Amino acid sequence: MTALETSKVAAFNIVEPFKLSEPTKAAIANGIAGMAASLCSQGVFVPIDVGFTEGFGVSVMTYSPSSALCMLGHGNDGNGSIPSQGTIVMVQGAGGISAAAAASLITTPLYTIKTRLQVHLIFSLNIAIETITI
């Protein structure tokens, strides 16, 4: 969350010079912040999970789009009104479902490719080791 909020402030400063509406600026800044936070997260979890050299690039390509889509909708409506609790729950629920569906459509094929590349790499290394030992 720290990476997300820090990135969000920097992204707002980046999009500030553009003549865009406040909701558009918020959506772009949140998308950029989501991708940056995902990159920071992958820098921590990939070395622990699969090894830094084997899966970092593919993991970033897999999870960054979903993080950007998820954070894209976390903006304000720009009119300053305070919505009711029920409206917030409905909007957050619908946004979460639609972001998850869109992210799944994008990332599932990338995840499959990542897994196949990792399995192919491991299989190739095993063949190389067997060839060297013979």
TrEMBL record:
InterPro entries: MCP_dom_sf
Domain of life: Eukaryota
GO cellular component, one term: membrane
Location(s), subcellular: Membrane
UniProt keyword Protease, yes or no: no
Primary subcellular site in the record, as a coarse category: membrane
Translocase in keyword set: no
Keyword field: Membrane, Transmembrane
Protein's name according to its UniProt entry: Mitochondrial carrier domain protein
